[in-house]
Specification:
4 strands; alpha+beta; single chain
């Protein structure tokens, strides 16, 4: 499962997804999902349970707002 905040790092997520595809792995990422009948948290937990590997991409945001120090 590939995870990061939704609004930032789109190019980083794309590069990780592309890398997975090049190696023959099928990436699970929230931005590749269609409409589902579940909350984002529940769907994220389901995807994490199904995944063999978790890849977290972290930077300057947490949740839906900027990180402040």
């Amino acid at each position: 499962m590939i995870s990061s905040t939704a609004l930032d790092l789109p190019e980083h997520r794309k590069q990780v997804i592309d890398g997975c595809l090049r190696t023959g792995c099928m990436p699970l990422a929230m931005d590749t999902l269609g409409a589902v009948d579940a909350t984002a948290v529940r769907e994220s937990l389901r995807m994490g349970d199904e995944a063999d590997i978790y890849i977290g991409i972290f930077a300057f945001r947490y949740g839906d707002g900027p990180v402040t120090a």
